[in-house]
Design goal:
The complex is a heterodimer. Chain A is built from ten helices and eleven strands. By secondary structure, chain A is an alpha+beta fold. The chains are: A alpha+beta, B alpha+beta. The interface between A and B is large, with 87 and 86 residues.
Chain lengths: 311, 289
């Protein structure tokens, strides 16, 4: 917020210039009414109490001449002047945004949804000060959450924190039909460029991971019954050989290390599907040790995959 | 239209023009006068008025120090109001760039931070140099000069090839190098150094397209990656065929393995064979030949 320095030698400064700068600062901060601007000018001794509001209107025109787009005050704007565009914004380049994008791309892997949300809000905040529309679009496009309703996301994060049972509308894959689901919200996760709600489907009695994109709305929420709140993740013990420990996920813990590149690991996964997918993705570096049923399911999947390539 | 709506304040305009110019760069008084007068029908800016306008800006708490005879805009009071956690996550981005990118990239990002610093209520600190930077620079220079490189591993192994790119995956930095007819992904942490040879390279097929088919539910719910296009959709077996412009087949294999029998690599043949070998090798882990 602009405030004038206390010791003012008005011979060495331009009073009208100060009004222009002050008004610009005020309008960048928020829409302002004529009265608010007048009061600020009076407080800063930039006008006298008996000066008319025309002075302020002329200052407004001065900003417009400099390229500021300022709406007229009307009932629609609550009788405030709104600065829609101005040439005093951040002049950042496409090259700078590209570097930011590269760094963000690396960071987003394994990042929590909370952190991604913070980045999304930060990019939006910075973009507000970017005058060039193309750069603004480019900056807003960096966020992995750009196509996601942020308000809905915030609600889901809160539901997960409280482990609420939520009734949601859900669009089934490949099916235009929307169904209702009762889900115990457990965790939000970002993986493979998608945000998932990890939860427990009360009607189907199984853990589920639902892409947030397919949840158009949350109908209601309630406290979760105790019988559903004692959910246990799927635990898998496996051996990893010739594998750099940097690739180990947060839900995985090394329990025995043979050398730098061979370890026994215990992973906790949201459900069996996620566990098997993870084991397969590790390829020949991984041998599932326990439990037996997951080990067998991985083998069955691999045998089915081999069949495909026989042809 | 009211008469007032046409009126403007000339000296206010000139103060704003001075500010706008200072937002573009750092200038001496002479440069400021010259640039400000450039678009005027006759010179109106001189030493005394520009000084007055700079003082006006300073009076409004716009920080314009004069260092080495140049005026530069250090801070605007009506800019970004950053919270502590926002500064922290910007710092995180800087750390990534500091650790994993070349000094050229660091400088570009620093210029972005410098601009933000002028606007922000909180300062974002500068980078510190990283030891890997020189390796990145050698690699990038070789790439730009089209020279082959030799990667020197800590275990004294050497690998000669064409530099392709530097990428980051899950917090690790990798050099992509084309040798023995494929692109290899080398963990920067395994390297002791990089040697740029005098050998030029003309080019190679940096991005090969890998075509794979997805079936069933997966085909219906699959979200295309930016590097992918659908080349065929079949209603008879509910499948889609996708072309992926891939230069990192290891990462793609890991992802496609997740899709189990719902996915099949179709072409090129050598990549299909590699997938087949990967499946066979994984089965061998369980004693299945």
């Amino acid at each position: 917020m602009i405030t004038a320095e206390e010791k003012t030698d008005f011979c060495q400064i331009s009073l009208t210039g100060m009004r222009g700068l002050t008004m610009l600062g005020l309008l960048i901060e928020a829409p302002r009414s004529l009265e608010e601007i007048r009061n600020k000018f009076l407080e800063m001794k930039l006008i006298d109490p008996d000066n008319s509001d025309d002075i302020i209107r002329i200052d407004m025109n001065t900003l417009r001449t400099m390229g500021c787009e300022i709406s007229r005050s009307s009932g629609k704007t609550n009788y405030k002047y709104v600065l829609k565009k101005h040439p005093f914004g951040l002049e950042i380049t496409s090259e700078q945004v590209n570097i930011l994008k590269r760094a963000y791309k690396n960071l987003k892997e394994g990042a929590s949804v909370d952190l991604l949300l913070k980045y999304d809000l930060l990019f939006s905040k910075i973009a507000e000060f970017v005058f060039d529309e193309e750069i603004k679009e480019q900056l807003l496009g960096v966020s992995a959450l750009k196509h996601i309703d942020k308000e809905k996301l915030k609600e889901l994060i809160k539901d997960c924190r409280h482990q609420n049972t939520i009734c949601i509308q859900y669009k089934d894959a490949g099916n235009s039909k929307t169904v209702s689901k009762n889900i115990v919200a457990q965790k939000m996760e970002f993986r493979n460029d998608k945000v998932y709600l990890m939860g427990y489907d009360i009607d189907k009695n199984e853990p589920v991971m639902l892409p947030v994109k397919r949840i158009p709305s949350i109908i209601s929420r309630s406290k979760t019954d105790e019988e559903f709140s004692n959910y246990k993740p799927v635990e898998v013990k496996f051996f990893l050989k010739n594998f750099n420990s940097a690739g180990i996920e947060d839900c995985e813990k090394i329990i025995e290390s043979h050398d730098d590149i061979s370890q026994i690991i215990v992973g906790q996964y949201h459900n069996e599907f996620v566990a098997i997918q993870r084991m397969l993705s590790l390829g020949s570096a991984c041998i599932v040790l326990e439990p037996n049923d997951i080990r067998q399911k991985v083998i069955d999947k691999l045998l089915a995959m081999r069949e495909i390539y026989k042809g | 239209m009211k008469k007032d709506s046409l009126k403007t304040n000339q000296s206010s305009i000139q103060v704003l023009k001075t500010l706008k110019l200072l937002m573009k760069g750092d200038y001496t008084m002479a440069e400021l006068i010259e640039k400000l007068n450039e678009n005027e029908p006759e010179p109106i800016f001189n030493n005394s008025v520009v000084s007055k306008y700079i003082n006006t800006c300073r009076q409004c708490l716009i920080d314009i120090p004069k260092i080495q005879n140049k005026y530069f805009l250090a801070k605007l009071p009506f800019g970004l109001q950053l919270k502590d956690d926002e500064v922290a996550i910007l710092q995180k981005l800087k750390d990534v760039i500091n650790e994993e990118m070349s000094s050229k990239s660091q400088n570009i990002f620093q210029s972005f931070i410098d601009i933000l610093n002028r606007y922000a209520n909180k300062k974002i600190t500068r980078f510190e140099k990283d030891s890997l930077v020189s390796a990145f620079e050698s690699f990038e220079r070789a790439l730009n000069n089209r020279k082959k490189v030799v990667l020197l591993f800590k275990n004294r192994y050497e690998l000669k090839g064409i530099p392709v790119d530097i990428v980051t995956e899950k917090g690790k930095v990798f050099f992509l190098i084309y040798c023995k007819n494929r692109i290899r992904m080398i963990d920067a942490g395994r390297l002791a150094g990089i040697h740029t040879t005098d050998e030029n390279f003309l080019g190679y097929d940096k991005e090969q397209s890998i075509v794979f088919k997805l079936k069933g539910k997966l085909a219906k719910r699959y979200d295309l990656r930016p590097e992918e296009t659908v080349i065929n959709t079949s209603d008879t077996d509910d499948s889609i065929t996708i072309s992926n412009r891939c230069y990192n087949s290891e990462m793609l294999f890991s992802r496609l393995m997740r899709y189990d029998e719902l996915c099949e690599i179709r072409t090129p043949n050598d990549v299909r064979e590699q997938m087949k070998t990967l499946i066979d090798d994984t089965l061998k882990n369980y004693g299945i030949e």
